[in-house]
Fold:
Amino acid sequence: MTGAEAGFLLLTSSLGNPDRKVLTTAQLRILSGRVKRAERVTVDRPMEAEDLIALGYGREMAAHILQLLQQEQLLHLYCKKAEKEGCIPLTWASNAYPAGLKHRLGEETPGCIWCKGDLSLLMQPMVALVGSRDLGERNRSFAQQVGYQAARQGYVLVSGNARGADQAAQNACLRAGGKVICIVADSLTDKPLREDVLYISEDGFDLPFTSQRAISRNRLIHALTERTFVAQSALQTGGTWSGTVKNLRHGWSSVYLFADDSPAFWQLQQMGGEGITEEDLLDFHTLPRQLPGLFEK
Structure:
C-alpha cells in the first residue's frame, strides 16, 4: 500500500468503527485541492498542525485531520483483518479505482471502497439492474432477462444483491455463465470468494447492514455503468425510486424502465427514463435514445 493510499484510508474509512468521524467526500476534495495548490513537498517529516493551518484550516479542523492521520496502528490492524477475509481497499489513489465513479459522481464519490473478488471485473463493460424487492411476474421476467442478456452480450451485471429484482437478475446472469458485481449494504466477511462475482462495500468491509447504507450505495450502482435498467419501482417511495430519480436528475447513466404501465413507470418516464420491453434487451447497443425529461434544461 502506498503512502497516498494509506492517507486516503485514514481520512475516509471507518476502519471498523462506525462512529469514527471521517472526512466527507467534499471535505476530502477540498483538502486535496489545497495541498495541490500549495505544492507542499513532504519527504522528511509527517504533516503537522501548522501545515494545515497554513492551508487555511482552523485549529479545530486541523487537529481533527491530524488525529485521523495519526491512527496508523488502527489502520494496520484493520488491513490485516481485511487481508484474512480476502478484502481489498481501493482509494482514489489506487490504480484500480473505477474512473467512472469519479467522473459521474463528483463530490459524491466515496474516498474508499472495499472489494472482495475479482477486481478485473471493474475494467469490463457493465450494465446495472435495480428494482423492487417484491416483484410482479412480468417484472421478475424482465429482471431475469437483463441478467441473461448481460451474460450473453459480454457485460458484467452490476446490482445490489437484495431480495427481488437484484437477485433475480444476478442469478440469471450467473446461470448463463456471466459475471456480477454486487454493491452491498452489509458486511463482506460472510460473502464467498468466487471468480465470477465481485462484492463492493462502502465505508468498511465488516460493517453491518443499515437502511442508510442501503440508500447510499444506490448511487454507486447507478453511476458505475453507462446503462441502468429498472425492473420495477414503487411510486415516490423506496430505494429504487429515490436512486432512479437522483440518477435522472444528475445524468449518471442512461435509465431504461420496464414498461409495466405502473404509476411509477409513467412518472419516471416523464423525468427522462426510457420505457422498454423485454424484446428491446436483445441488443443493448440498439436501445432507443432517451427523450428529454423534466430535469433537462
Summary: DSSP finds eleven helices and nine strands in the chain.
